[in-house]
Fold these 4 entries.
Entry 1:
Amino acid sequence: MSEFSFSRFKRVIQNDALRIARPLAYGTLAVLGLTVLIYLTNFHTGEMVYQTMNPVFFGIYLLGGGLLFTSLGFQDMHHPLERYQYLMLPCSNIERFLSRYLLTGPLYLLYVILAFSGIDWLGNQLTAWWIGARQPLFSPFTALSLLLIRIYLLAHIVMLTGAICFRSHALIKTALSLLLLLVGFVAAMYVLLRIFYWDAFSWTSFHFHVVKPLQVPLLPLFDAAWMNFAVAGGFALWILYVAYRCLRAHEVQDGL
């Protein structure tokens, strides 16, 4: 069997989409009811709200719902009964991986943008009709919305890796693992600063007390936005590669 076939991949992504369509529809209906209820109870008659709430709700639904959704993306691979059906699907590893990455990542993001735009419009229409209040409509092109989208695309890759590596409670375990990595990174940076800039700190205590300014020159390239995007993109590709290698390792280990 070839490593990648577009016709096989199309069938795989259709099969995965059908599997998640019902819970996603139920979740969307729940979000619709909750959002409309909040709009109706937080606006006042005749009020025009300039500090909009919709970017906050968009971030909650995108990050909260998306990361939870991603953490369950490979649940059938770890399930004691469903894993055999998962392994018997006539497709390659890369096709499985791309299907679930696209469904939980870019396609989910597009779905949330379209669905929340409709939900926000409907909530605005109902509040305008019911109590005469309204707020500016949601736009995915504001600075805050674009920042939330970039955060989700990067966090999604990390959560996808956790969904592959952890057999249960992937969301909690991935969050704790990431927290431990961040704590370890901060501790390592603290130790390195104390070593390489030993004369800039007070050695009478372990507190981060600087006795003279630190001179830490950075490359001028990092002043450019394209350089930061390139580094973030390279980091994301590396995590995706690690996730794919973990997926291949899981499918050949004992017990699968």
Note: Residues 72 and 163 are 7 Å apart (CA to CA).
Entry 2:
Amino acid sequence: MPLEQTDLVSLNRLGERIQTALSVVMSHLPMQAKSIAGLSAFLTYNRSNSQRILNAFRSKDGLQVLTQLPGIAGQQEFADKVSEHIPKPALVELNQVFSLFCQALNQYARSHAELKRLLNEPLQKEITDPSEQDKREALFSASKSLLGSHINTLFCCYVLTPNKHKPQFLHEFAMISKLGMMRSPASPPFVQFYTHEHPDNFDKPELIDKTSRLDATQFHIGIAKEYSTPQLESYYSSYSHSNSGLVFEDITNQSFDATFLFSNPDELANPLVDATHCSSTSISIKTPTKKMLMMVLLDKQIDRRSTVNVGCYMGNQKVKEGKLRASDLWTERLPEFPELSIIDLAAPNRHTVAGINAKQMCDYLLNYAGLDGNQFRCYLIEIDYPIWSSTYRIYFEHDLV
């Protein structure tokens, strides 16, 4: 029988846990053991199984991990061979996840081959269960009522490219646009959060328009005039050092738009020159939201050596960029699987996404940054009623070994 969606959620989580355990193991092995031939020679371990272990380690998601692993006997032999080269806690965890795999195999299939077949069967594109959609809308309505605020459409676009001035870093440019936002007088102030430490001389966000050009050597945050309610800057109140956010007050009982541009030149390591495991972008749903569009434009130089993953996670756990793989957050992942698309914004039928002129807004950001859109691959997720108080994250995991 085909696997149910709940089975796939459980198996994906197991695969991510196994991948995390393998990542710890690989971190303790010498560089020469991080290729198929090198791992086989270092451990005197079967070459085919060495390939399977490395494929599982590099897999894009938990389900792929389970299809790439060697069989039960190969897993046990790997644990035995590696035992003298890794710390005891890493070995205990490796044996535990292999034992859990064995239990899952007994539960879902008669053999590893059958489990692979079940996981590789094309899944029919699911039509959202009306009851599930109703639950999401109910959560939106309840949280909107509780907080006294909501957003009609959240559009965010991130651009990742090597920094010409600091080659050890990626330069991240971002547009965060909150369209049709409403606040009641009782709701918390509107705060635009971000992660980068602000310069000491910061006074207020700059006002940006289509003629503005960026000083690419410094961190910047500004209000995009063409996509924001007139005089939005006049509602700016203060900068909150405790949570890195711009505070806006007294915008109540009216619908307004607030769009911000960010230039972050020195927070993400450049995987072309640095041994970083991954780069990621994320958006946290701090205000109840009807529709979310999240786009990432990744420089094609980096895209060629990366695999992409997407997930929805509890809260907004701080991730040390470049150190964690998506699978390392398996304990935080929610059973929400956003669909990731690759789109060509140059195609006329893709200019508008969910009523938003995405190409126009991306071009505005690229123009501000002085970049050519042809050098990027564009990824998109589109979500109705994104889960309040969760974080949606797109990872690019880099092939290092």
Note: The mean pLDDT is 86.
Entry 3:
Amino acid sequence: MNPNPRRPWWLRKRSLLPLLFLLGLAFALVAALARSDTSRIIVYNETGVPIGALRVTACGQETVLQNLDDDESYRWKLAKTGMPGEIGMETASNPPWRWHGGYIKPHGGYRVIISLMPDGEVELQNQISVWQRFLYYVSQQ
């Protein structure tokens, strides 16, 4: 009798590790593609003071940020409903501070980063998911 019977090919180390790597890579690609259609708004408070209440509106949706301390951020994932359009922000102070600008769609992998600066200044950065850019490019060909 042979004390070391030959293992099947899928249980050998030189076959199993590359197979596990490829499965992990495929899983990561599917997860990235599935999440790439979600749009997000990220608000950073860099004003130097806490913000008591800040209402953010986009695509017919609304959220209220409560007690956003200095150097903190809030991430808001939009539902995939609504019309594309501007982003609006308003504080509950007297007089209220209002801002409108930027552009976002409720889906399509948009990420809008808003930095609230001292003296009411707003810095805005728009990004679109690499996967969504690729899908748009492929659909245009």
Note: Helices lie at 13-35, 130-140.
Entry 4:
Amino acid sequence: MFFKRKKKIQIESKYKKGDTVNFKHHGELTFGIICNVKANEEGIVLYDIQIGGECPSIIYSVKEDIVRPAK
């Protein structure tokens, strides 16, 4: 049986995988590293961002408009 490969979709985004960014999470400014870039049905760019150090967690589907570059 042959399997089809999924076609990679090119998403135009401000930030790329591996970039360090700041964003608001639970009312506090938090920094993290982008680990995935995706888009929803409406074409809005969403990021999965890894936060934390020794015991990291991932915040899923953060909208592009609340993400800022880390300084």
Note: The mean pLDDT is 91.
